[in-house]
């Protein structure tokens, strides 16, 4: 290991450490730049009530970057996710679509990872310190796609897209069973899920980014009432 | 920033840096420990020809950790992924299932992330250095689930699970169209995909972990011939 040079950078000191391990090659300059964080070069296209959109919005709020962030709330009903601004940098025509200066990052989880790596301080970091601890978070991030597929896609979207008169009790029964099996995986490992939900939703970051149309009142139907 | 102490740790030096930025809180000790890498405390349950299994196997091989790694090749036909050893630490009964000492990591991408963070050196790191560069890799890791859903699940598994006499030409036509649309997203951004494939498959890590039953000869049917 070799400390090659130490120099002043404003009020901060840049320490460049060179050795053969992985993390030392991360550019420390990038960390220091984040001490003066700005969100004015960012842009987020998002939709109200979309989980994929909400995720990076919460992370932005946790980093103190949500307030004043240039953004556009698009209308799902008018299919504004297919507008030319979005399609130009996200050919799948999806939200969230995110820019930080010239850098485009799409896919909600990738945006969260990027924000965590680029804009964290010791006070607002969301991932734990060690590779061992982080591995469990990564495991749950990827495992959570099962909830999306087996609860949201399978059940909630069935109610959402199927008229009452077209719904089939047998189909619903099967979908409810699939969703319950999925949720049981989480409840077994995390018996205090309800408390976790209450703790998380009380956070200022979650409150500040709460889907605006949910504030206007309950939706016509609780699609997950069967659970 | 404050260098609090420097002390010798075997032939390596441990430099503990304390300041307010994120990365500094990563335990440098963990990096140094990896200089003497061992795989004897690891265990991988895997299946031949499974993409989720192959991913961490390639990463292990890239880190020089595949050779001699305690592992079990399970049989999909005999549903050995539901064996008690696996179910005890992976209630979904899936492969890959991975252990590193007492630490369990499941979900293929999470295993890859863990191995990259824990066992990388400057020579074998797979992720790029800066948050900006890594953000694109993360984007593509999460985006790649579309290939799994729209090409593999939709098309390959239809052929795999549907007897020839039960196949429907209209259904196939629709599934092929979906798969082609998906692949076009990748070909537009990465026109040299074929060259990339050839470069990747030539790597020793890929050759060393090639699904053994694929070496025995071609499978009965090319499920992606329509593409």
UniProtKB/TrEMBL annotation, chains A, B:
PROSITE patterns: GST_NTER (PS50404)
Limits of the GST N-terminal domain: 40-123
Xref: InterPro entries: Glutathione-S-Trfase_C_sf, Glutathione_S-Trfase_N, Thioredoxin-like_sf
Residues spanning the signal sequence: none
Highest taxon listed in the record's lineage: Eukaryota
Any one Pfam family match given in the protein's UniProt record, by short name: GST_N_3
Similarity comment text for this entry: Belongs to the GST superfamily.
Official protein name in the record: GSTA-like protein
Higher taxonomy: Eukaryota, Metazoa, Spiralia, Lophotrochozoa, Mollusca
């Amino acid at each position: 290991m070799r400390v090659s040079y130490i120099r002043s950078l404003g009020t901060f000191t840049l320490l460049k450490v060179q050795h053969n391990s992985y993390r030392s090659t991360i550019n420390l300059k990038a960390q220091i730049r984040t001490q003066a964080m700005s969100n004015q070069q960012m842009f987020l296209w998002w939709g109200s009530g979309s989980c994929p959109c909400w995720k990076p919005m919460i992370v932005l709020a946790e980093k103190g970057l949500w307030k004043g962030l240039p953004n556009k709330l698009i209308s799902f009903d008018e299919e504004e996710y297919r507008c030319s601004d979005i399609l130009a940098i996200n050919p799948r025509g999806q939200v969230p679509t995110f820019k930080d200066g010239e850098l485009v990052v799409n896919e909600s989880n990738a945006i969260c990872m990027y924000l965590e790596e680029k804009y964290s301080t010791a006070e607002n970091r969301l991932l734990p310190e060690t590779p061992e601890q982080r591995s469990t978070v990564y495991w749950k991030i990827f495992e959570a796609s099962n909830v999306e597929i087996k609860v949201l896609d399978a059940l909630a979207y069935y109610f959402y897209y199927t008229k009452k008169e077209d719904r089939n009790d047998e189909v619903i029964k099967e979908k409810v069973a699939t969703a319950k099996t999925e949720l049981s995986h989480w409840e077994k490992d995390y018996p205090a899920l309800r408390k976790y939900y209450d703790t998380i939703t009380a956070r200022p970051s979650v409150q500040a980014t709460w889907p605006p149309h949910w504030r206007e009142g309950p939706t016509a139907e609780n699609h997950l009432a069967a659970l």
